[in-house]
Amino acid sequence: QVHLRESGGGSVQTGGSLRLSCAFSGDTDSRYCMAWFRQVPGKGRQGVAGTGNYGRITYAESVKGRFTLSKDWATNTLFLQMDNLSPEDTAVYYCWWRHASAGNCYGEPVWGQGTQVTVSS
Length: 121
Description:
Blueprint (H helix, E strand, L loop, with lengths): L2 E5 L2 E4 L4 E8 L6 E8 L6 E6 L5 E3 L7 E6 L4 E6 L8 E11 L2 E8 L3 E6 L1
Parallel strand pairs: 2-11
Antiparallel strand pairs: 1-3, 3-8, 4-5, 4-9, 5-6, 7-8, 9-10, 9-11
């Protein structure tokens, strides 16, 4: 069973930076996909950045050039460095995990508890 523990949310002003962390434990020997999603009230969760077992990283168009996804294999932690933040980035950010095989993600997704990011103008 996989557990996700998120940290790093908070409040910043426009142009500021935050770094989100998602530490996972449990099935660390499996191949897996991991990603960050975000959600604002009244809307569904949207993908922000993610990576699969082949290491390719993808970003939502709205965050390209501002957000950087990275992973620390030694500590089984996924990071999302968020720079040049704007009020449109305000949301609850969720970490996401699924098994992976041959570049595809499969199985029941595991979600973190969410961390609030608030950007003021």
